[in-house]
């Protein structure tokens, strides 16, 4: 029970099977690689809106060429090279040829890849994705615009997926993204990792967005697959870079710890056919112990640098650590987890946090106590279309032997779920109830 936040058409003359396959590959590759392509091009053109357009141009080129010529051995590098060439052409047209081309040449030739685990100089992080996330989290944008734009550019989410995640109309998200890109351009926001007070002022937004990107990879909002590992990897890498960049910030280490713990479960979270495996049913021997150890070290660093009450990422990392230390679901220290969720609810009130607390309480004190807390959440507007609310309620009702009511809740949850893997899981729960 886990409560967690147009392809090209083949021509009539050549209706081959290879073309749909290539188109599907292009769509998948672009979804995975577009954040890097946008970030790499944004360094050249210094405008995230134009960078996204050039990345889309590279996609169009791939749709034209790959079905005919075959998919390149390194499709991500092909997209990046194509987009960069178009960026250089654009700069040539818009600026003085010799001056700008020399500047770009020096930039691209002298830039060395960053060492993400142990950077030589914490104040000299050279990472386009990190520049992009700090740019899209600039305070000239509203918090809602920052999140929407970053999820669009770094998370690779469509406007429809972002709208579903935030339960707002799709046109609203589209307008936020368009206005955000225009604002960054008109305000001449630098494409850089800021220093000093400016960096600290943007840190909260950056941490939130990195966490949102990880969550979209960890439990995809929509689509056929539960996991999008590329998003998890990018978010975790950005968190590690930030830990090296800001070694005295406890919440940076805490977020890194949380993501390490969550990522450690990836191999155990789906079955051979892609069906989700709930936390209570996971084979913990498949958890990545190296990532668990990294999570513990990062949490130790967060504790060592903290000077006051734990922040919300520190509390969430502590909860994840409780799971990591337990040999089984039943042996988990549920009372401590329930207490930590109580602290988290006071630190960062949220109906989703309360739903997670209800799960922990049900394990520590019994399903009847957990159900009381869940029932108190049924009127929450933010959870009206949240499939995990009826899913959790169905589990608790089933544990109490109230099968008919549990059946109704699982059916409702399956109807609300946007991810096909989660829908299959909920339907399987429905079929497993007595009397089916």
From TrEMBL:
MF terms (GO), sorted A to Z: DNA binding; sigma factor activity
Keywords: Sigma factor, Transcription, Transcription regulation
Signal peptide from the UniProt entry: none
GO biological process, one term: DNA-templated transcription initiation
Residues covered by the RNA polymerase sigma factor 70 region 4 type domain: 134-184
InterPro entries registered for this protein in UniProt: DUF6596, RNA_pol_sigma-70_dom, RNA_pol_sigma70_r2, RNA_pol_sigma70_r4_t2, RNA_pol_sigma_r2, RNA_pol_sigma_r3/r4-like, WH-like_DNA-bd_sf
Residues covered by the DUF6596 domain: 202-302
Domain RNA polymerase sigma-70 region: 31-94
One Pfam family cited in the UniProt record for this chain: Sigma70_r4_2
Plastid recorded as keyword: no
Domain of life: Bacteria
Record region (Disordered): 1-21
Entry similarity comment: Belongs to the sigma-70 factor family. ECF subfamily.
Name of the molecule in the record: RNA polymerase subunit sigma-24
